[in-house]
Amino acid sequence: MLPGPIFNVELLTSARRPRYFVVRTIYASALLVVLWINFEAHGQFTSGYQATANQMAERAATFFAMFSFIQLTAILLAGPAMIAGTIATERERRTIEYLFASQLSNAEIVWGKLAARLLHLLYLVAAGLPVLSMAMLMGGIEPAVLARVFVYSLMISVTVGAMSIAVSVSSPRSKDAMMRIYLILFTLLMLPVIIWPFMEVARSLLGTPVVWGGELIQSIHPFFVLFYIQSTALTSQSVMGVASNSWAFLMPSLVAQSIFSFVAIAWATRSVRRVHLKESGRSAKRRNFRLQLWRPKLGNHPLLWKELFVERVSGRLGVVATFAQALVVCAVIVGTLLLVSSIWKNATSFSSEPLLQQFVPFSMIMTVPLRLVALLLVAVRAASSMTAEKERDSWYSLLATPLTAAEIVSGKLCGSLYATRNVVLLLLFVWVWGLLFSLGWSFTVLIAMAEFLLACAFVALVGINFSLKCRTSLRATGATIATCAFVGGGYLFCCIPLMCAGSSEGMAIMLTPCLPFLAIAPELVATMDWPDVPGELVAAFVLGNIGYLIANLALLSSCIANFDRLSGRMHESQPRRPREGSPTDASSVIGPPEGS
Question: Which one, 2, 90, 294, 343, has least CB within 10 Å?
Fold first, then answer.
């Protein structure tokens, strides 16, 4: 009987977890800040200012547009984190066999877990209603547009939930599930950028652009659909050939998402037992026939060898996520080649500055999302570096080795950084074409790559620290992503009022920890003449990187110093004897100090 006991257990246990309350509080607080900034920017709260009814309605309509996009972003970010680990966590903890041995059906297991987590996602959406009601008192928000936005948000929640539960069923671990679902969502959201190079190829071959491709993207892309909903409320013009006062332009997206959600949930319900039994039966066979092109000897650094050449991230992405990854790679390569050929073909002179100024915007559009996805990949890999050892019962075996804390932490750090090797190659492929326009671009590439590796090291060290302190990979991953998102740019929600009222120097100082700003700063400076470069921009970039370097050193030393205490390998008052000889030397086995 649906929803069944799984729904009751999941709803009861998850409701007691404080992280859901924290997420709702942060979401509602961000909306309140946006509401205050929206009215403060127009003098609405200034003493003695009297606004007309039309001005009040205009400000409320502007806030509602911002509210809609923030709500959609929260659903796309929080939905996978809440749902993607449901079935994968049961498989990772080896408790899913107990569910299969009970009288519960596949539908009760899948639908129960999905319904409970979707309810928490709807609680998150409902947390913004009190803030929205404050703006509705001022008018300017049409009930029809409000209904469309919330119906579409509900449909997006169901679609994200169905996609997440399907990925969770096919994933052996929660880390793999989160990595797959975020990669798939990133690919879907980047569809306009991905399909643009192929539309340009069709334009060059056929002489006309493929119009239906753009219309298809606009009809299913969530941010495009939300933009059309808001635009029909502000104008009386028709959108996509449909009258602005009808639901017709929204129906194709709702129908497509309904069909997709039904198929995804039906597949997850049918395959939850079959996939687990099939994977369990052939896991040993996969390890025997894994293709390894090159693997060095073990040497004196066994954990580093294991992290670099045994822990393979790309092999666990799955078919759909691997296809999405291949689509992104092809789009970046084809788009870069098309742009470079177009710049040279349309160049009227061989001056380096105008050509480089045409290349740099495309470079930022392509590389900044890739770098952010790489940071997410590093966060997921590092956050599960220690907890994964605990979950597959190899943690005590690792602690029983003569490896020191520095060797274990450095091995996990290098493994997390090594996971970005494919992204680094793709970034270099984009950046190297800039050398055709200016040899000075090489200096910009070196600075951008150094900044990227510094940011990856920071995210990895934060993940390793949380992985050492948390009990599960899912909890460590959530804490790592939340911390890095706040430090790397989320703090700006609290600083926006100060930025609006402060000077340009103060704004630059507030941007120093912002990772997107640090990512685009080298390429932005490359398009300017050096005398015209703002000094506060350079100072913010330098101070930001110095800050992250100091933070990396502090996190690394703290993790190494506290490793034995947090792992429980040795008491704080009992110093560890330094290792002598090779890792396999019998004299270096862990034991009590001499003379005890």
Answer: 294
List, for residues 116-152, the tens digit of each pLDDT value. Answer: 999 989 988 888 888 888 777 777 777 888 888 888 8
The string of DSSP codes covering 458-482 is HHHHHHHHHHHH-SSHHHHHHHHHH
Q: Sign of the C-alpha dihedral, residues 566, 571, 575, 578?
A: negative
Whether 480 is in a domain gets the answer yes
CA separation, residue 147 to residues 152, 230, 375, 562 (Å): 8, 12, 36, 53
**Is residue 410 situated within a structural domain?**
yes
In this structure, what token pair is assigned to residue 422? 């494919």
The two tokens of residue 341 are: 């050929």
- Looking only at Cα atoms, what is the longest distance across the chain? 88
Angle at 209 between CA 206 and CA 211, to 5 degrees: 130
Does residue 309 lie in a domain region?
A: no
pTM for the full model?
A: 0.77
Compute the chain's Rg from CA coordinates.
26
Q: Nearest-CA neighbor of 384 among 474, 505, 462? A: 474
Calculate the average pLDDT of the chain.
78
**In angstroms, rounded to a whole number, what is the distance separating the alpha carbons of residues 97 and 273?**
9
Please give the Cα distance from 224 to 6 (Å, whole number): 37
Number of domains in the chain: 1
Q: Answer yes or no: are the C-beta atoms of 56 and 140 closer than 8 Å.
A: yes
Nearest by Cα to 549 from 518, 506, 521: 518
The Cβ-side half-sphere exposure at 242, using a 13 Å CA radius, reads 14
Residue of 245, 263, 256 lying closest to 221 (CA atoms)? 256
Structural domain span for residue 506: 370-570
Distance CA 402, CA 139 (A): 69
The closest of 371, 366, 363 to 524, measured between CA atoms, is 363
Report the distance separating Cα 415 and Cα 307, nearest Å.
Answer: 5
Which of 427, 417, 438 lies closest to 365, judged by CA? 427
- Domain presence at residue 401: yes
> Residue 183, class by beta-carbon neighbours within 10 Å (0-12 exposed, 13-18 middle, 19+ buried)?
buried
**What whole-number distance in Å separates Cα of residue 368 and Cα of residue 380?**
19
